[in-house]
């Protein structure tokens, strides 16, 4: 999920720490989509001066610059505050990304920066971000066209000849690219992609509208339906490659990606859908309350306080479901903001990190009906060491598919597997380890391969 997931925050931070803003160069061979690049800064909100009150100062604070990066070469330093990029004034950190969307690697980008009491102007030339590579399989940079926009896609292909089964990966929606460059070598997504490709599968990932190289505006304005269009188009495109068996194309959705999947699967021609760690299926007030209840229990097992916090959270989510602004709803639930602070700051324009409009899309979706219309085979997996995803949501999806009668679903629990498919004895073990750099559990690859072997022998 956007910010409720500690993993999602770690993924975004890891990507941003090494690139912090993209801008493009020449496209890959045969690819018409321009490449974004790196500025090389670590950003943070501008802090309020000590003793001051009122609105936060405008701009984006540069905490540090990447040695040898474009920002350092242009003379920027830690402590500088970026107040303008080109014609875009920066009120806060997200405006930095908005301003940079107009530029590509190799472009000359005018920055206006406040350094102490002095305002200076510098010109930055972003460099192309290091590409994803592998010595064991091919990595292909492509794009998918969706409603007139070109969206960046990443394909991994086994070196063996012939048509291969393929997985379209649908992760939790994020405003960060899903590119796995050299700095992401130990990331759980990288381990998953490595495992699937070495097992003989083609894989595809797609950056959402307005993310990384992809065309489009602010990704936080993307709707659930737009994401459904993106991944449905990607599934259709994946079936057209001459190294892919069109009768054995599957979706593999993770976390909040399950919210998008029934829309993506519709009329896409996929043979089957596999889910892992689903966090959205039942009403958000139920799913989110259960997930936070577990997190509070692991963080500070005070039953009385946890019960009170869970009731506040259910009240808060219910208010947001009715369309109340998140900040106003949070203020009505006294003590909830503090209770949620261990899991990151809570914005006034999002619900537990989910942009309000996207949250309203999810809250308004009848997932029982949507999953009931899925005609593909479904494998619903839940890790027994997963403290974030609810077993109940995964079981709900399998039951909805089977009640719909169009497809056939199987629920399966996976022992010693946490939310990102790393090995863990139980949810507490995963929580304490932080699950960011653990040992990947190959049982996920084995389970998916066995399921594809069975489901793929039947024609769609």
Question: Which properties best describe this structure?
Answer:
460 residues; alpha/beta; Pdz3 Domain; Rossmann fold; eight-stranded mixed beta sheet; six-stranded antiparallel beta sheet; 15 helices; 18 strands
In brief, what are we looking at here?
This protein is α/β, with parallel strands linked by helices. It contains 15 helices and 18 strands. Helix 7 (284-299) runs antiparallel to helix 8 and helix 8 packs antiparallel against helix 9.
Report the principal-axis shape.
globular
Please, how many helices? 15
β-sheet strand percentage: 15-25%
Poorly predicted tracts of residues: 1-30
CATH class of the largest domain: Alpha Beta
Description:
The protein has 15 helices and 18 strands. By secondary structure, it is an alpha/beta fold. The protein folds into 2 domains: about 120 residues, Roll (Pdz3 Domain), CATH 2.30.42.10; about 240 residues, 3-Layer(aba) Sandwich (Rossmann fold), CATH 3.40.50.1820. The strands form 4 sheets. The protein has an 8-stranded mixed sheet, with helices on both faces.
Give the topology.
Layout lengths: L5 H14 L17 E2 L2 E5 L14 E6 L4 H4 L7 E5 L2 E2 L3 H8 L8 E7 L2 E7 L2 E2 L8 E10 L2 E10 L5 E7 L17 H11 L3 E5 L17 H15 L5 E11 L6 H5 L6 E5 L7 H16 L3 H19 L4 H7 L3 H5 L9 E2 L2 E2 H8 L3 H6 L4 E7 L7 H14 L4 E6 L12 H7 L9 H13 L5
Parallel strand pairs: 11-12, 11-13, 13-14, 14-17, 17-18
Antiparallel strand pairs: 1-8, 2-3, 3-4, 4-5, 4-6, 6-7, 9-10, 10-12, 15-16
Helix pairs in contact: 7-8, 8-9
